[in-house]
Amino acid sequence: MKRNQGFTLIELIIVIVILGILAVTAAPRFLNFASDARASALDGARGAMASAGSLVYGKAVIAGLQNGNACLAANGNVVAQTAGACAAGQVEVVDGFPAATIASVRNVAELDAAEWDVVLGTGADAPGFGATDTSVIISPAGVPVSADQADACHAVYQQSAGGGAKPVITVHANGC
């Protein structure tokens, strides 16, 4: 007669403990939800800025103000600047697209100050890999802006170069 052999209770418990240890150490590496969420939020902000820029450009073309400086009024119309500046509550428009200013980008793309940090970019010494003198850096609130591409978790809004050229919006999410 054959003797049925199975696993003992001790062997089953040891296997379950080993699988539990592996799950606790390996799962966070495979399931990095926070990083994915920040990267997706940056893509969403890029989409919001691109869509808003296209809408503003369409309004500027209708008003015949797609070249040079203008203002986006609270009623949604693009108007000529008065005295070389936009009035309070208006968004600065350069060559038909929102200017690379904190107020312009924040207002047009509706980036909430509690959720997004928006800072001006500068050329050589800037935090914000990919930033220039005519750019704005957008990052999730509380995430430091890095000058190193490997640590970067931000988007760069590069103002229109004129002549109907769209602004360049680049997402750097390697460090999210």
UniProtKB/TrEMBL annotation:
Alphabetical UniProt keywords: Membrane, Transmembrane, Transmembrane helix
Record InterPro entries: N_methyl_site (IPR012902), Pilin-like (IPR045584)
Any coiled-coil regions, as ranges: none
Tree of life domain: Bacteria
Transmembrane segments: 12-31
Pfam family, one: N_methyl
Stated name of the protein: MSHA pilin protein MshA
